[in-house]
Design brief:
By secondary structure, this protein is of the alpha/beta class. The chain is built from 14 helices and nine strands. Helices cover 52% and strands 13% of the residues. The protein has a six-stranded parallel sheet. Strands 7-8-9 form a three-stranded mixed sheet. The chain binds nicotinamide-adenine-dinucleotide. Keywords: NAD, Oxidoreductase.
Length: 302
């Protein structure tokens, strides 16, 4: 069934947002696009979006505003700023934040927006830039059922597994649990590749074999090839994962839940950033193992 055409204000046109907004255009929605980087707005306007020069302009006349921003402070700026969504809400009175940010901050913004008559849904995503491009993201949404149902026609333009997981903040909680697994899984893959390499096995073949068995994972499938070839190109940056691991630990500390494996892998991500890898893709975590195992020189030039 064709979805009703909506007007979507889209704020944050980076690695993920530009693909998600382009898919909304392809799905037949009208998009009003804004980013602090004007060239990002121009690129989306070239695909048919209406360029906006501010948050308020993106929200003007929109049924829904979607935000896809780096971290909590940027989402707060877009909500509370002088021309922000609290002061200049979309006509449809619904904001869907798809960034990964702190659940506690989501609940605060949800309450403040609700007091002004605007609903907020937290709807973070998993699936990386490939999932964003293919419109196959997994979307985990927190907020009222009414807000979820209203957002569905737009969410369906960006993802395939779309689930209402609870009240405000619950989407972010589930996303942070996802990130904890991704980080520790990547660490496990680094260890297996480091050991396999030292023993002289063919790593490409080993990856294919493992993908057919119980060690298979999204990380091994999608990031394994770049880890093996030494391609550190950004998709999901080390810096963004460090932000997520910080959010995981802040949440866990507040609930007194010990997460020793998360703490260990966070140290390795910090090591990666200290060695200048913050802007590289997550697969560059393997370079920490290159250094630990004396393979750093051998891995250079990849
Ligand atoms: P990104 O840094 O590539 O994009 C963020 C965009 O927001 C940039 O274009 C930036 O200019 C813009 N921006 C920053 N502050 C702004 C403001 N105040 N107003 C308007 N625009 C502003 O990040 P990304 O990789 O697209 O990730 C976005 C969010 O999605 C993050 O929270 C990230 O953790 C999450 N995420 C990323 C991936 C991934 O694989 N990259 C996967 C899942 C979730």
């Amino acid at each position: 069934m064709a979805e009703a055409r909506q007007t979507v204000g889209f704020i944050g046109l980076g690695t993920m947002g530009r693909e998600m907004a382009a898919n909304l255009l392809r799905a037949g929605h009208a998009v009003r696009a804004y980013d602090v980087v004007p060239t990002a707005v121009d690129a989306l306007a070239a695909q048919g979006a209406v360029p906006a020069a501010s948050v308020a302009e993106a929200a003007d006349g929109a049924d829904i505003v979607v935000t896809m921003l780096p971290d909590t402070p940027q989402v707060e700026e877009v909500v509370y700023g002088p021309d922000g969504l609290l002061a200049a809400p979309p006509r449809g009175r619904l904001v869907v934040d798809m960034s990964t940010i702190a659940p506690q901050a989501v609940r605060r913004m949800h309450a403040d927006l609700a007091a002004a008559g605007t609903d907020l849904l937290d709807a973070p995503v998993s699936g990386g830039p490939q999932g964003a491009r293919a419109a196959t993201l997994t979307i985990m949404a927190g907020g009222s059922r009414t807000a979820f149902d209203k957002a569905l026609p737009v969410l369906r333009g960006m993802g395939t597994t779309i689930t209402h997981v609870g009240d405000s903040g619950a989407g972010q909680t589930v996303k942070l649990c996802n990130q904890l697994i991704c980080g520790i899984n990547l660490q496990a893959i680094c260890e297996a590749l480091a050991l396999g390499r030292a023993c002289g096995v063919d790593l490409e073949q080993m990856r294919e074999v493992l993908l057919g068995g119980s060690a298979a994972s999204w990380m091994l499938d999608r990031l394994g090839p770049a880890m093996i070839s030494g391609d550190a190109g950004a998709g999901f940056r080390i810096d963004l994962m460090l932000k997520d691991l910080r959010l995981v630990q802040e949440l866990a500390y507040g609930k007194a839940v010990p997460l020793p494996a998360t703490a260990l892998v966070t140290s390795q991500y910090l090591d990666a950033r200290a060695h200048g890898e913050g802007g590289n893709g997550n697969q560059a975590l393997f370079r920490v193992y290159d250094r630990m195992s004396g393979q750093a020189e051998a891995a250079k030039g990849g």
